[in-house]
Amino acid sequence: MSDLSLDGGIRLPEACKGDRATQVGSTKHFTGGLVLGDGPGERHGVESHLEKCAALILSYRRSTLELRTQVRFEWSDKFGEIHEHYIDIATLQTDGQMIGYAVRPKERASTRYLQELARIRKQAVSQGFLDNFLLFTEDDVCPVELFNGKLFHSVRRPDCFGDPVAQDVVRSMTGVTSVGDLVAATHLEGTGFRAIVRLICSGHLETLNYERIGPKTLVFKKKEV
Predict the structure, then answer these.
(1) What number is the average pLDDT over the span 201-222?
(2) CATH code of the domain covering residue 197
(3) Which of 5, 39, 106, 109 has the most CB atoms in a 10 Å sphere around its CB?
(4) Residue 5 has what pLDDT?
(5) Domain tally for the chain?
(6) Same domain for 165 and 137?
(7) pLDDT tens sequence across 181-211
(8) In a domain, 164, yes or no
(9) Rounded distance, CA 139 to CA 191, Å?
């Protein structure tokens, strides 16, 4: 897609590459959209709040290289009849594996549904379409991971002014330091905080503890900026 000259050259996100268009609106359940990925990103439709949470969590995991939604897979039932199943989310991992996720609340995961998923999983793995196929329910939503995923998503746009300042601060840091101290060293307050969070998201900084990221969070340099 070509660049669009809007307010200095903003490029619009790519259209979703999913094999099925999600609902734009519904009177019975949550629908929405997310822009995920580096640069301008790609639009993704979601059809439940749980699906939105799953997309945010999985997208910002360090092990995720690429996230796809609504991936079509053809499978056969015990009578040999062919059916289409749309995998809600599929993630290409940094180790090369492709993991599919069926996003569904526990109360709607009936025995019949689970048996169907097991059959789909067996065929998808045996055909090399997926390396694994997992059920994602509300039990898989870690509050810490969701909070940090939302935070990473909210600051994902680069800042041509704040980012270089934060990078200079991080280059000179040694040992373990709090996010608040790094922000103070930038003298940029909120702009500095967002820039430091981006460096955590990119893996240049690593949190010492598994926690919600904030000013008191301790970090160390994982790789050079």
Answers:
(1) 97
(2) 1.10.10
(3) 109
(4) 43
(5) 2
(6) no
(7) 999 999 999 999 999 999 999 999 999 999 9
(8) yes
(9) 34
Q: Are residues 65 and 106 in the same domain?
A: yes
Q: Do residues 137 and 168 share a domain?
A: no
Dihedral in degrees, nearest 10, Cα atoms 198, 50, 69, 17: -70
The pLDDT-based confidence of 59 (bands split at 50, 70, 90) is very high
State the pLDDT at residue 156: 93
Q: Could you tell me the CATH number of the domain that includes residue 120?
A: 3.40.1350.10
pLDDT of 1 higher than 60 = no
| Structural domain range at position 168 | 159-221
